[in-house]
Each structure stands twice: as structure tokens, then as C-alpha cells.
């Protein structure tokens, strides 16, 4: 019972060691729900430019009763043609594209970083590209936040918002004014996390580790049983080798039994004395000593 709990705990620990900041890409997370996030970065693609013919929705959710601040660090999408955007990003203030738009079909290049605040703990992004002309796309950093007064486990930014204490000193400016990255001691530095785990990935990790452990246990038990059988055969044969007829493997299998399960009596070549398995008294020896 404790083994699965232990494995899940290990997977959770691995995730927590990675930190509170995760990295995702629209191209890899197309259609996914990035649930239970605290802070992270979302980009259009792992490549230098996004691909043609993308049509991806990604939903991000953070802790209940929190909101999300989206800070766009890069926004380079194909410019409008005849007033319409061939490639574009739309952002919805909720769990799906059915929620109100925060901006609709935005494209072109925005040089200055800009930010948006959601009204709930969910946000949905839709990125669409047509079949020609690709650009670097967008990069947005998102962070859960709440309004003051900050509670236990939260850090109060100079800007006045409360962010997760785990976002402090992780080399990412979640506060927007860098107050979470100033005055950090060496022991507080966490470094940037490159990969985040979803709940499904954590469960997959736990199941995978459990299967691996079961296989290891079975293999170990089998090897130990084989070792004990071999030891038993060696001990028995070493005791009787000098007094036995030369025998074949077939004889040994028959007389000794497969894998040493039987330990029959054998007849000595020299004295015609019955040689007993270890631990049994030899009648012939009794005769000689009496
Ligand atoms: Ca930070």
C-alpha cells in the first residue's frame, strides 16, 4: 500500500525540485489544458519561427481564487493584409474560447512589452497561422497573483500584487518590477526550469516507476532462487563427488532431480556404502564404527 504512495511522492518531489516556473510551447501543447500552474512561459514554437497552418488553443489554469497576469515579452506575428490578420493571436478571459475576448485576432509587431490581467484563474489562447510567411511569434510569461493583503506563502511585490513565494529568486521577473529577484541570497537562487510536468505526466511517472519496481523485484527474486538452487546442488555434489560413479547429466537429472529438488541416495564406487545427503547419518558408517 505504501509503495504507490511513495512513488507518487517521489514524482511530486521531482516536480517540486524543478521549481514553480514551467516552459511550454503552443506547437507542443496544441489543444491542451495546462492545469494547476503557478507561473510559466508560453511560446508559439520550439523553432526560431512558428509553422504554417497552425490552429492551436491552449488553456492555462492557476490556483483557485487567484488571477493571472500575462506579460508579453515578444510579439512578432505576420502584419495585417488589407486590414485582416493572416496569422493572429486571440486571448479569452476564461476556461475556453466561449469566454469574453481580452483581445481578438491581434497581429503585427509590438516592440514594447505589454501585460494583461485576467478576471479569473483561467485564460485561453488561440494562435492561428495561414499557409505562408512565418515569424518569431509571441512569448508570454504568466503568473498567478492576488491582491493584498498577502497571505502565508505569498510574496508581496513592490508593485503591490501578491505572487507565490516560490517565484522569488528564480531568475524570472514575475512581479514586473523585478522586486522578486532583488536582494536574493545564494541559498535562495533556484534557477530557471526548462520543462514543466502536467498532472497526467506525474501520474505517468508514478505508474512507470511502479512497473519498473515490480519488474526489478521479480527479477531479483528469480535470480536469488536460482542462486540458492545452484548452491544446494554444488554443496551436495561436492560432498559425494569422490565416491560416485562417473555419471551423465541425464543420470544426474534423474537421480538428483531437476534443480536439486530431490536428493536421492547414491552408491559409492569403492565401498558399496550408501552415501547420504548432507545432514543424514550414513548407515554404512554406523556399521563400521559399531
Ligand atoms: Ca521571480
Automatic annotation (TrEMBL):
The chain crosses the membrane at residues 197-221. Residues 30-145 form the CUB domain. Disulfide bonds join 150-162, 157-175, 169-184. InterPro entries: CUB_dom, LDL_receptor-like_sf, LDLR_class-A_CS, LDrepeatLR_classA_rpt, LRAD2/Mig-13-like, Sperma_CUB_dom_sf. Residues 1-19 form the signal peptide. Keywords: Disulfide bond, Membrane, Signal, Transmembrane, Transmembrane helix. SMART domains: CUB, LDLa. The keyword GTP-binding does not apply. It comes from the Eukaryota. This is CUB domain-containing protein.
